[in-house]
Amino acid sequence: MTTDWQSLYESGNTPWDRGSPAPGLVSWLESHQLQGRILAPGCGPGHDLTALASSGASTVVGIDIAPAAVSLASTRCASLPSVSVLLADLFTEAHSSLLNSFDWVFEHTCYCAIPPDLRPDYAAAVHAALRPGGHLLAIFYLEPWEAHEDQNQGPPFRTSRDDLDRMFQNHFTLVEAWQPTAAFPGREGREEMRILKRLD
Ligand SMILES: C[S@@+](CC[C@H](N)C(=O)[O-])C[C@H]1O[C@@H](n2cnc3c(N)ncnc32)[C@H](O)[C@@H]1O
Q1: Cα separation of 58 and 82, whole Å?
Q2: H or E segment at 125?
Q3: Which residues touch 124 (CB under 8 Å, ≥6 apart)?
Q4: What tens digit of pLDDT does each residue of 130-176 get?
Q5: Ligand 1 center to residue 159 CA distance, Å?
Q6: In the chain, how many domains are there?
Q7: 104 found inside a domain
Q8: Could you tell which of 8, 47, 65 is best to mutate to test the pocket of ligand 1, judged by most ligand atoms within 8 Å of the CB?
Q9: What is the reported pTM?
């Protein structure tokens, strides 16, 4: 079943909105910089965009398929001149105006939000959005569900390290993978951060 993201925002059913940027991103940015143009697909309410705006990047573009999310993120980032937020579908937009133009893509709870059968398309779309040699910085949500819960429900849809290896191997080479020491309550030990480099 397709998720109606706009309706979830309109009804306030947005449990992914934790009111601040992803702790794994904030922690990584304490010792790293991002340069150039960054794309954040499925940016939602835009908390991560505020952290990305102070990362050293020249341009941060958030895209989301839900107008309500674009509105929230635009308001949140109104005073940040390097940030723009667009109403766009990753699966169509990355192949047109956003093609080959980003130094970095930042992933956080977009991959787990899309139906698993679209994962190859996600990897292809991120590859297409990056310039040659560009990188994907990702916080992947591996296991959202408790052992007694239905593992096939979603979003968020569970994933595994093997699944990530398989989905990205045709388009990316893995540079680094680690478990973030900082995470939102309830997500501790359930995330993996990765840096992947675009294969040309
Ligand atoms: C679980 S939310 C996470 C939002 C944000 N990353 C965060 O952590 O707060 C997933 C977001 O992806 C957006 N989304 C889903 N499919 C999309 C697509 N094909 N293109 C762009 N955004 C999409 C949804 O509207 C929603 O805002």
Answers
A1: 6
A2: helix 119-129
A3: 171
A4: 999 999 999 999 999 988 988 888 899 999 999 999 999 999 999 99
A5: 17
A6: 1
A7: yes
A8: 65
A9: 0.97
pLDDT in tens, 69-110: 999 999 999 999 999 999 999 998 666 678 889 999 999 999
Pocket test for ligand 1, best of 2, 4, 5 (most atoms within 8 A of CB): 5
Ligand 1 center to 33 CA (angstroms):
24
Does residue 129 lie in a domain region? yes
Give the residue ranges of DSSP H helices in 34-180. 47-53, 67-76, 90-93, 119-129, 161-168
- How close is the Cα of 18 to the center of ligand 1, in Å? 14
As to burial, measured by CB atoms within 10 angstroms (0-12 exposed, 13-18 middle, 19+ buried), residue 194 is buried
Q: Is residue 162 part of a domain?
A: yes
Measured in angstroms, how far is the CA atom of residue 22 from the centroid of ligand 1? Answer: 14
Q: Number of C-alpha atoms within 13 angstroms, CB side, residue 195?
A: 12
> At 136, which helix (H) or strand (E)?
strand 130-141
- Give the CATH number for residue 79: 3.40.50.150
Kindly give the distance from the C-alpha atom of residue 5 to the centroid of ligand 1, in angstroms, as a whole number.
Answer: 8
Token pair in block for residue 88: 């766009």
Domain housing 159: 33-144+153-198
Residue 59 inside a domain? The answer is yes
Residues with CB under 6 A from ligand 1: 5, 16-17, 41-45, 63-66, 69, 89-91, 108-110, 113-114
